[in-house]
Each structure stands twice: as structure tokens, then as C-alpha cells.
Amino acid sequence: MPSSKLTATLPLSGFSEIADRFDLCLCDVWGVVHNGVAAFGEAVEALVAMRQRGITVVLVTNAPRPNAGIALQLAGLGVPESAWDAIVTSGDVCRALIQARAGQPMFRLGPDRDLPLIAGLDAPEVGPEQAGYVLCTGLFDDATDTAGTYADLLAGFAARGLEMICANPDLVVERGGLIVPCAGSVALAYEEIGGRVVYAGKPHAPIYEAALALAEAKRGAPIARGRICGIGDAIRTDIAGADAFGATGIMVLAGIHAQDLMEASWDQRHGWFARQSHRPDYALPHLVW
């Protein structure tokens, strides 16, 4: 369904053009701050500059791991702590959903690198046939698998009416210039055959509410929705989530939609935005100050 916004997306050459409008920036990580392999230096500089201007920066990511793991990853990529005030992950929200099902047998669909998500929780792992619910953190091998790889498995879950918790609503993510599938693609396939899915991250409200609560605690005062911006590279999660939360949506073009947008003219970009479910308020090729 095309966007219902009547105003066109405005191009930016840098975030500084609109910085004085905001007290809080909710910034995506993958595709904006780094590509999974290397950090984007100008984006890091922009986040540091925001904080120097008094803007609180909360990194909001659909990574299916607790925020401590993301902080370590950022440090490993050379992103300094001066670039952010707090981090909220889909994994943080997901842990609360798992805790609400304490003791129930769970089938975990995803790579072992996501095991920190369930560390310390009462979430006994079982085989597909014994599961009371499904936790999807990703694909077992996102270099070779697709959602279709699990068609039979998902059909069995749906036939038994099992609920799936999706720890990462992203359909795809950029990794070192490649586009790889995420847990959201599996969850979507499950919904398409009648499966029930609970989503932990963007574009759904709980992750934004958690981010806002952290920001208001750090600032010691409420923050008006009109003084919040959400920066990201994905229409379906980042821009849709910002829009639903009442925040200003700012899109980075050189992310997962780069093939459609980076070589296009602004007239072509406006046409592309108009065909999407949500339209960003502003857009720029890369996050720069």
C-alpha cells in the first residue's frame, strides 16, 4: 500500500541542517553506523556531534542479542562510546517475552552466535516435535539458507498452532556489501501459512518505548514526540517504526535499498518513496553531520 503522507521527502546534505529540531535521536545500527564489517566514519562523527549539541542518542537495533554484546561489537569496529548514550536491542525486548514463558519447552531456530539471548533464562531447548513455542533469531546458516529452506518445519509448527517469537523483525541486512536474510523473513513465511508471530523489535512499539524511557531517564525530563527523530535504512522497520511512534523519519539511502535509490535522481527517489508503505520525512545518502 502506498504511503499516505502528502508531503514529499526532503533531501538533506547533512543532519546538521535540522539538528536544532531534536532532543532525541533513535538511530539504527546496521546499514547506518556500520555494515557488519566496518564502521562508517562520517556516521560515527555525526553521532558524536549530535551529543555535543545536546541531543541524546539511543542506538536502536533489531539485533537478537542483549545490548552488552552490541556494545562490544561496536567497540571492536572502532565506534567510541562518545557516539551514543544508550543501546536498546530487539534481544532486550525478546528476553522479556521469553521470561513470560518461563519453563515452557522452546525450539530455537537460529545460529548459535545468538545463544547469549537466552543465557540465564528458564527456556529449556527441545526438538521441533516437543516444542511449546518457537524462538526465531535468524537462519541456521544465512549464507546458504532461505525461509523456504524451513518450509516443512514451519508447516509442522503451524499445524500444531505454535506461536513464534521473532527476535529480529528485519527481512534482510547488509553484511560487507552483501544482502543476507534475517529472522523476519522466516517469521513472514510463517505468517503467510497461518502461523502466529510475536515481534520483539522495530517497527513495533515496545522497543521504541524502552528507548524513550532510557533517554528520559538520562535527561531527567520528558521528551516530546515532536522532538524525536528516527534514523534508519529500512522502510519496513526504521521508517515505519518512527512514523508509528510519532517521530520524524530520516532515511539513509545507502543501506538495504541502495540498489533502488543510490543511483536514482531525486525525482525517481520521490516516485519510489510514494510507492512504499511509509515515506520518510527526510533522506540523505549516508549519515553525515
UniProtKB/TrEMBL annotation:
One of its GO terms (molecular function) is phosphatase activity. The keyword Signal does not apply. It comes from the Bacteria. This is HAD family hydrolase. GO terms for cellular component: cytoplasm. The keyword Hydrolase applies. Keywords: Hydrolase. Gene3D superfamilies: HAD superfamily/HAD-like (3.40.50.1000). InterPro entries: HAD-like_sf, HAD-SF_hydro_IIA, HAD-SF_hydro_IIA_hyp3, HAD_sf. Signal peptide: none annotated.
